[in-house]
Amino acid sequence: MSTSTLQHGSAAEHGHDHEHEHHHDLPWYRKYVFSTDHKVISKQFMLSSLFFLFVGGAFALFIRWQLAYPGQAVPIIGDILPASWATNGVISPEFYAQLLTMHGSIMIFFVIIPFAVGMFGNFCIPLMIGTDDMALPKLNMWSFWLVPPAGLIMMAGFFTETGYAAAGWTSYPPLSAQTGLAKFTISGQTLWTISVFLVGFSSIMGAVNYVATVLNKRAKGMKLFDMPLTVWALFITAIIITLGTPVLAAGLSMLFMDNFLHTSFFLPDNLVTNSTYFGGGQPILFQHVFWFYSHPAVYIMILPLMGIVSDVMATFSRKPIYGYKAMVFAIAGIAFLGFIVWGHHMFQSGMNPLLGTTFMLSTIVIAVPSSIKVFNWLGTLWRGNIQFSSAMLNALAFVSMFIIGGLSGVFMASAPVDIYIHDTYFIVAHIHYVLFGGSLFGIFSGIYYWYPKMFGKMLNETWGRRHFFWTFVTFNLTFFPMHILGIGGHMRRIYDPNVYDFLKGLGGVNEVITIGAIALGFSQLILVGNILWSMKWGKKAPRNPWKANTLEWAAPEHPGHGNFDMDITVYRGPYEFGVEGREDDYWPQWEKGASVSVKHHTVAVTDDTKTFGAH
Amino acid sequence: MDGFFSVFDMLAWFPENISTFGQELDSLFAIIYWVSVAIFFLTFGVLGYFLVKYRYSPDRRGYNYHGNNVVEITWTVLPTLLFAAIGLYSDDIWERTKYSKRVPTADVEILVLGKQYGWVFLYPGADGAFGRNAHNDRTARSLMSASNPFGRDTADPAGFDDVVTENQFVVPVNANVVMRGSSIDVLHSFFLPHARVKQDVVPGTWMTIWYNLFKTGKYELACAELCGGGHYGMRAEYEVMSRTDYDKWLDARNAEVKAARTPQPAPAATADTAAVASLR
Questions:
Q1: Of A483, B4, B28, B132, which sits with the fewest C-beta atoms within 10 Å of its C-beta?
Q2: Answer CATH for B105-279 from 2.120.10.30, 1.25.40.10, 3.30.2310.20, 2.60.40.420
Q3: In chain B, what residues touch A407 (CB-CB under 8 Å)?
Q4: Which residues of B touch A500 (CB under 8 A)?
Q5: What span, in angstroms and rounded, lies between the C-alpha atoms of A228 and A63?
Q6: pLDDT in tens, A580-610
């Protein structure tokens, strides 16, 4: 994969040769398995996330089948399902609870976060700031190698007495804390706790690394405000991770002890259950601790993609980002506000309603930086020269779906409206518009955009567009009707809506959603096919296929360990497209040349002695 | 065709509203809905227009322009005002529906408990007062058991006539119903879709739930918080009755409780047997 670097004769001239030779001596397992090269780690994150994307998707399809056709046997594979999952092919209610738990947990902890932070963080940060690798490469390697064991541990819940964890991805106690099992019993829930703890640990190791790298290893001449928005977003995300994840770890530790050692952090007095241990605990405490991390975590899942989409949109609109600094401040604003809004998940939880007021107002304020970002993206398109590549199409899908997801967020931010829609499918619709419509389209966009630099080959554009088209259509077919279910009062996480008279009219909507979901699931095979096919048979990628400005495109076609074959000095900001006085419509950051800024326009000048910042 | 377009009229999918503050919640939902629809068409209109108008042409170049502070401030301030208005208006309704100080004087008081998987209710009975139980006396919590979920003290004469119902309850129309809710095992959520009421019930704590319903009829209560495999079946029915029907219903329950108690020498009853008798 990454050995094809040294063909470039120029490498020797720049004093990297010693390093490169050293890397060539590494045994294969240090190059492809336990590699410290950030690009290899990034690919590893990509492959593991793709794998878990399909695992999580499969769980979702089981859920969808049950909701559309409750009590009917799962087609085709119904007969071979294990007895703990289904009887005569019909999914059992207990397994249904495990399905929704595993779907949520896997998609969030093993797909979106590793994609957004692990894959793009690793790939983009060193390349985009023009350095050879992360500040702490070994730590980086470990941050990946905690993920596969964590995934296996979570999936191993299948082999326990109680099956997978079944208390939802939020794992609210007491349900998650009292299983009626003896002390020191390994259950799906304890494995879930260990697993999430480990991915959290992996996140922290990655994040520490990102912060250290961004602060210490930027190329010569690169000021913080010369960094592309992708790097800014990842940098701020990393700060959120270092502040938030330890809190989750604390909550998980307490939950683990409640389960495994029969402590009682979250179990109040006088429970009437089959457990023998309880007393003195507070169930709502867990919700506070959990959401103190998990609300910022939704920004961990979307901020990096906001950065990526900004870069993609600038490149394919052939225009500078509108309001670069406003974009940076908006990211920082969202990150800060993200820490003071967690209570909006708990409006109906029994938290003092006085706090509802506080959290409602802080939550609604978040709509402001979010709308600033949307307006600036629209401003970026304005008077651009827009090329509809697969990456751009996915970026545009991100923006448009984020608008819908953001607007549906206003409903639940308003506490009185939330009384009715809380814990209904309206929330499910919202989270999927933000996490699939937002994050996953952003991830697709990033994959299409950086694939040439990752693998040295171009992805197939035609299949890229087909993948986009089918995903976009079936995504909306799947998730938009969920708003209707929610308004109809359809609770989330219920096994059989037909139990309720007031939900009887919604069966058709459920069927439409399921058909959409199945098509959506199969559409993703196009992406995987394209990725694998292009790796072998794709067109060879040129060094700068999109004519972009950021530093990763200064690296060779398929950079090896050490990344660059020339010395990088940064002369300007990342978004100088269409500069007056230049023949090319782009002006890479690493190309020497002077410019002046005149009324928000950048103009190239020939006088080398005067260089102004070009923002 | 009408049926087809009704799919896009999202507000038409609400179940019928039967509570006083439910009307306010629905109209607030409608306000946010129409604001969202407006923003949606505005942004998507602009987006679509730009995508068509500025689509790629080899003869043009992107316009090198880095942004404008006046524009930035404008589109920061305008949404701030809009969202602040929504927030403040919402807060007014929130305070009136949920703040503990704003709970109206109760015409009817009921205790409710969630359990895996069902709901139990406790009425004060003919004397209009609860006996000693886990809600009004912390020390009575130790009496809570599967057969006596409310932890009722059977030695307390005030509680002799308390009425327990399971998976069904009855409330009078046009009356302030104040319920105190809790759970005996895990989290549940007390959800009356038609009354626009939702409140999680937490073991170890009593939550106040109140509403005032203006329409008689039979409706459903659902659990809205995952509480285990049987969560989906945690359904109960309730009936909103006219005041006279409600009094009749209550009289009938009182008679039943009395009949169940008579054959037994009251002081000798153990906690469990008395509770079982009143559970019917």
A1: B4
A2: 2.60.40.420
A3: 36, 39-40
A4: 220, 222, 235
A5: 40
A6: 888 889 999 999 988 888 888 999 987 655 5
